[in-house]
Structures are given as C-alpha cells and as structure tokens.
Amino acid sequence: MAELLGTFEQAVLLAVLRLGADAYGRAILNRVHESLQRSVSAGSVYTTLDRLEARGLVFSKLAEGTPTRGGRARRYYNVAVAGMRALSNTHRTLTTMWGGVKLPLQVNP
Q: Which domain holds residue 52?
C-alpha cells in the first residue's frame, strides 16, 4: 500500500505544483498560508521541503543571484514524478475513505 501524505505535506506539494516555475521558499510559504488559512512558520515549510526532497518527492535547483537579492541565490522547487504519484495516491485514498459520507457531518448531542 502506498504511503499517504500528511495534510501539511500535501499543502506544500500542492503549493509547489501550483506555483510552477515560481516555486521558491517565500512564495511556497505564502501559498501554504493562503491554502491552510492559518499562520505557518517559514521553518516548518523549509523543513518539509527538505524532507520531501530527501524522499525524492521534490527536487530543487539554485538559480543565480541577482542584484535585487544582493547577489544571493534563490532555490527553486519542482514536484518530482514520485511526488505526483504520492499526491494522486493520497487523493484517491482519501476520496475513497470519504465516499458515501454526507456533509456537513451531523453531531448528535
């Protein structure tokens, strides 16, 4: 059985996917913040990106520094094929799990 991604991992991977060629740290952080509608620390995003890269779900490359950034390089991320597969498997599994459940859920007192 394929490993399921956690909610935060999904949010980060989907942010990278949606941003495309513009997927760098701060932009990913902002997109995750918007998606989850809650405060997100930069450290948690970068730690998750590092973990996803170690697992082969994303890959990154350093771009050349620019004068605007004081010559500092910017790291850009892309979703790897394995990351696409993991997102698809997670979505499929969660959709199956939620199948037949009527929303909103009714809470009985």
A: 7-98
Tell me the pTM: 0.88
Q: What is the pLDDT of residue 108?
A: 80
Packing angle between helix 42-54 and helix 7-19, nearest 10 degrees? 90
User: How far apart are alpha carbons 15 and 58 in whole angstroms?
Assistant: 12
pLDDT of 8 above 90: yes
For 61-70, the pLDDT digits (tens) are 998 766 676 6
Peptide bond before 109: cis, by omega within 30 degrees of 0?
no
Q: In this predicted structure, what is the pLDDT of residue 70?
A: 67
Measured CA to CA in angstroms, residue 92 lies from 23, 25, 87, 97 at distances of 25, 28, 9, 9
User: Residue 36 maps to which CATH number?
Assistant: 1.10.10.10
Residue 101 phi, psi (nearest 5): -90, 125
